[in-house]
Amino acid sequence: MTSVLKPPGVLAALPRHRHDLSREAVRGSQSARILFATAEVVAERGYADASVGAIVERAGVSRKTFYELFADKEEAFLAAYAAIDTVIARMTAAAAGLDEPREMLRAGIRTCLETLAEEPAFTHMLVIDAVGAGPRVLKRRAEAFRAFIRVLAAPLELAREQDPSIPEPDPTMMLALLGGINELVLQHVVEKGASTLPKLAPTVEALMQRVCFPATVR
Question: Full-prediction pTM beyond 0.85?
């Protein structure tokens, strides 16, 4: 699975010898390495103690290069956090080929957990570090939660077309549901690491069934 922090076609590292790469290719590689490094350093040290110096050392770039690409640590963090949009897009794509609402939700959940399992540092900054990274990050986090709600609402609307007894999605309840799932993921990451997150799928699916399809749960 392609990393959510590195767009397709971007080099993970630049050749040591003389090369004819375009400036765009070089900048793409440098930016990707900085995003990886930001996620790793923040996950290891926490946002407050993650310095630009530690990030550039991990990324293998100069401070000059860092500041040519990002205004400060917060901007680099926000750029790394934006990979959540790729996670959401993968969830949407996984559900798109299905026409049964519950299967659509299951596919989205499993895809999300599998993607997070592939990116331990990103997952740590996503569910743990973002909360204490300041107002701009919190605002971006809220936007991501709203995007998740839209992804979850799509199969629920389809389910209601098939069965009007299913309650209309309540944004507040959906936000509470996402908060609960986020806490499950957080505790799992802290206690067991991100690599086994797909094991949470049955629990998350059961929780979503109870909240989204209460009339059908036995």
Answer: no
